[in-house]
Structures
1.
Amino acid sequence: MLRIPKWLLIGGCSLLAALILFLAVPGGIKMVAAKPESVRLPAVMYHHVLNQSDMLGDYVISPKQLDEDLRYIQERGYTPVSAAELQAYVAGEGELPERPILITFDDGYKSSFVYAYPALKKYGMKGILAVIGIHSEYYSEIDDDNVNYAHATWDELRQMFESGVFEIANHTYDMHEESSPRAGVRRKAGESKADYQKALREDIGTNQQLLEMATGKTPTVFAYPFGFLDEDARAVLDELGFTMTMGVAERVNTVTRGEPESLRELGRYNRPYGVTTQSFFDPIFAEAEREAAAK
Ligand SMILES: [Zn+2]
């Protein structure tokens, strides 16, 4: 059997096809192998943005820090892209900018509406907001709009979506619990596969309906709570129409034209407080550019 070195498989099937073509050509050297067309895609994950110095931490940064981040992203020549652009690219349509980046905000906080939305607008940028349905439902029904802990209301989600600044992702209706028995969207101990998939279908499907009612569009992006993955969740996510999913593994993604699978379980870098903009972004950009150059 022909043993193919692992590094040759990194580019996936199209590179393998190119290799086979190469081997099939007499002499080989005249062959101009078609490289799979792909882009390196760093993704940043934010949570809260608050003007409260005593709350800053791993999941809370200040509006000033966010502004500096966005300015730096622009200065370094990166262009935030939408899920729709990425989905078109992997389907073989449309182009992506030379240095794409994905900007995401998890959990659907009101602080995304109050701080992140105007900041992205200011720079003409776009992002993805991953919403936990039960919280947005709750804060849409009660009279408590404290930005320190409230979540965005349906009306705020609609405004952000209609502006074109934010695409809305599904972050489960009520499965955003880190500890057992379930831990995010994982299968519980002793739960049958059928029961597990039914529970997911109900929860995530409920959020799909609520978000569709709020914005007029059914989400196509799913963010795994805490990045907890489960192989048996995939079939349900496919069934519910998700063509892009995001985890929390800190790595730069490679997105390949003609390979929709390359939008599965995208890695994202969590942006904590207490690190300067440059020391956070420089290693990520170096990684994205190093591998892009090595293609
Ligand atoms: Zn989350």
2.
Amino acid sequence: MVYNWGIGLQSSKESQVIERNGYTMSQLLKTITTSAPTTDIPFNRPCLLGNELVNMMECLDQGHLSGNGDFTKRCERFFEERFGFKKALLTTSCTDALEMTALLMNLQPGDEVIMPSFTFVSTANAFLLRGAKIVFADSEADTPNIDVQKLEALITEKTRAVVVVHYAGMACNMDALLALTQRHHLFLIEDAAHAIDAYYKGKTLGSFGQMSTFSFHETKNIICGEGGLLAVNDPALIDRAEIIREKGTNRTAFFRGQVDKYTWQDIGSSFLPADYVAAFLWAQLENMAQIQSRRLEIWRHYEQLLKPLAEKGLAQLPKIPQHASNNAHMFYLVCNSLEQRTYIIDTLKKDKIQAVFHYLPLHESPYYGPHHDGRNLENVTRYADCLLRLPLYYDLTPELVERVAKVVIAACVSFELASRER
Ligand SMILES: Cc1ncc(COP(=O)(O)O)c(C=O)c1O
């Protein structure tokens, strides 16, 4: 297949007629976002606002395809100015940003890192790769966030860091976490993969820890396919973070004209994304307010329609702690049992609606299970068995939200009636 992207012919933002096999830009966007549907209502659909390809074309026309070009700088400046991060560094993923935090902490084999068990494998892998021992903690009873009350007992003289995940973009208890980590002289790392544009008592998530990490994977609110951000809030770590991102060299300082050649300074790897990825991301950042407000409308619509389930004890809705904002990253239910959740998923599937569970407990995983110290992390097990995520994406219409909610309610009611008969 021959692609004619019109490179060099159309580079300005006014151009909406870049052709690809005869498609206009808007038709092309539609093709991308609607291709190969496997269900009527998938769990996620990447959201495109319109300027993603235009920006990428502009980047190609600028002739700077590798990292740290104009779009990378625009995105990084946006994060620093908007969210107050001391230094924002785009990365190829949140996974890579987490690996950078582990390198920046100078972890030694045997050092201990405390984190929730209810998280993605990358949170743990990043530190395991440096030889650390992972100590998994339980979640709160009423949110999947780490239970800060249970952390002090896990701290030993080898503990170096506490890593927290703001699950579904809802803030952990940051006052308690700051007090704890400062008292014990530990790093506080925020895995804010879900938590773009989210706040604790009005302060941006990602600005509390010495370092924090974000994801722009296509399932997140703000996307670029695969991508991430390392926010560095401790000024002492900034220079080294730049070096580690650029294969252990001071190439970034070289391109700023601060040194006359770049050399190998430290360990590092290739964590810098291509500038055309940043160009895509920039189109999303420019439209962040629109994305967030649309997602919040959908979230609130679900909440309003599904409230009766919570009132009748058929499922729990997400609890937003008083200290937390809601960035509408995810709408989930906590079902009453694994059997009920399986029944709801199957019922939705019959109606061509895709709803999905989430993390499996890392402390019980085939890889880590044999190393876990045997503590029962009861809330983690409950969220792993009972949490159910409903479709939530930018162009999910109110009619589709209603269709999902109706099937969920019907499934909960019929499951309840059948259990009473048993
Ligand atoms: C809590 C958490 N941390 C890290 C990641 C990894 O993000 P990425 O896919 O950008 O590497 C994910 C992925 O969804 C996640 O849920």
